[in-house]
């Protein structure tokens, strides 16, 4: 699949000497419910997937709109290689039509009255009928939607629609591809499967891709690099592993999916086992965590995702997990399809349960419980 | 039944509808998409014929078409006769009178097209004109049909402006609605009844087309 897509970009793949990097320097005032703030970012993207990650309202979509030319920055410069698309000082501002940027919108924005084939063909004009036809056929083929070509968007599944949107953007041979939460509209069960398909399709494109998401799973599945955006500023960048496993701020930690963040102190180091033991807070609670470069007595922070913690109603035996913490159930509340249990085991910890688990265990506040945390579910934060 | 008046009315309605399609589409596009801050003034002007008495509108059109106005003088120098009390004058008066019935449905339909589709079209490098033909117009079909049918029906049924601008010249400016007025004046109630019934049936058929089309277009392309 990936190799056929490369055929759509013959120029870019053979011409690696000319930098086709996307350079962005954008400043723009945004207004949100809690006052206005500045979108103020500067970065360069080489070819490959870069994840733009951050909470909703951080300015992610506005940033994409600035790059695509749908919104004007107050100030800055946007260019791919030597091609300047926006420059506030030079007074350059190409219209979206002239920018040659592929954009897969959050809601996909497929044309409801056109067939799949007409949607994909929509953006390519000025070619000989024959070339045009071949390019459309290639693109439908490579994304596996050729047999859907006569259908309209309303007759497609979420995943199929998503591929049509991708084909429509790629067939124009853009110099940059922007994807704004392309999987957000999909149901959770199919989402990971489609994310995998998407990765295969876009991974080896010889252009810079900027992929917006606020799903942690998508970050790890798709990204080679990531930018973390919070209230208009890039607060972290690097590989997903670097950024997500060593979040430098509380917000990042929570975004990265660590509902539980504790101050900790290293009490002992087990070089030979690759682990160490940390004391949480002022309490006597101890956690075995993966070994990082630290000394006994170092202060650090430990993040644990609420979904990575198991809960038992009797003391478990014969488990591989190294951390078994006795405690008491403090509260239970339901958020959507997830039950959040707060457990006091010296420190308070959140645990995510399914509705079925809550009913089967007949949980109620005050009940003694045991929390089970694998060593590698304890993430050491910087 | 006065067939001369019938065909005259039909011809007038067809021409006025065609003119309003040509004038109304760009005007409606501008109203739907312009960000000019005084746009509301233009919208108010377009809507004026809905609230003005036809005699007021007819009076001003008559003055504007007359030999003393620049338009009237120019027309006279081109053709040798004045616009007032001619079929051409009637077309101009009717176009102005029916303007909101075309422009408002068109503009409402254009505004209802999802802006994100227009953004998608722009990012794909497609010009505004092509976007209009390929996205805006197809997705505004029901508004288009509504505007055309209302314009047609409204032109057939107008009375005051026709009387003011066109007078009552058989074969030139005597339309069906004027015809009914004449028949009643002559106490020819049977003829008035026939003509009235014809107008009633035409109006009903046109409105039925509008409503049935609005329903059908929704079930054809349900929004995803």
Give the CATH topology of the largest domain in chain A. Answer: Rossmann fold
Q: In total, how many beta strands of chain B?
A: 0
CATH superfamily of the largest domain in chain A: P-loop containing nucleotide triphosphate hydrolases
- By CATH reckoning, the class of the largest domain in chain A would read Alpha Beta
Going by helix content, strand content and strand pairing, the class of chain A is alpha+beta
Largest interface: A-B, 30 and 21 residues
Could you walk me through the main structural features you see in this protein, from its secondary elements to its overall organization?
The complex is a heterodimer of chains A (382) and B (224). With 382 residues, chain A is of the alpha+beta class. Chain A has two domains: 2-250, Rossmann fold, CATH 3.40.50.300; 260-381, RNA polymerase II/Efflux pump adaptor protein, barrel-sandwich hybrid domain (OB fold (Dihydrolipoamide Acetyltransferase, E2P)). Chain A is built from eleven helices and 21 strands. In chain A, the strands form four sheets. In chain A, strands 7-8-9-3-10-11 form a six-stranded mixed beta sheet, sandwiched between helices. Chain A has a five-stranded antiparallel beta sheet with strand order 2-1-4-5-6, covered by helices on one side. A five-stranded antiparallel beta sheet of chain A has the order 14-13-12-15-21. In chain A, a hairpin with a 2-residue loop joins strand 10 and strand 11 (233-238). The longest helix of chain A has 15 residues, at 188-202. By secondary structure, chain B is mainly alpha-helical. Chain B has a single domain (3-33, 43-217), classed as Orthogonal Bundle (MetI-like fold), CATH 1.10.3720.10. Chain B has helices at residues 3-33, 39-51, 54-65, 70-79, 87-112, 115-123, 128-139, 141-157, 160-166, 176-185, 189-220. In chain B, helix 5 (87-112) runs antiparallel to helix 8 and helix 8 (141-157) runs antiparallel to helix 11. The longest helix of chain B is centred in the last third of the chain and has 32 residues, at 189-220. Chain B is globular. The relative contact order of chain B is 0.15. Classes of the chains: A alpha+beta (382), B mainly alpha (224). At the A-B interface, strand 7 and helix 6 of A face helix 6 and helix 7 of B.
